[in-house]
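User: I'll paste a sequence; please echo it back and then give the predicted structure.

Assistant: Echoing your sequence first, then the prediction.
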Amino acid sequence: MIPMRTSSVFKSRWMALIWAAGFLWFAYDFAVGSDSSETTEVAASQTTDVSGAPTTSDEQNQVAAAIANL
């Protein structure tokens, strides 16, 4: 995973900081993924149930009433 020997990375404080920054950049890039903003906007505008089917306004009102009764 490391393109250089571990012992040579940590001999210098600056090399260790550069290695850590690269590792954090990799972790952020891996966690965020490559979702496009269009897909996210469409998914946010549609409400679905557990099975992925779109919900109706009546079903949404029933859920809101059930939460209000808690």
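Residues 37-68 form one domain. The first helix runs from residue 6 to 9.
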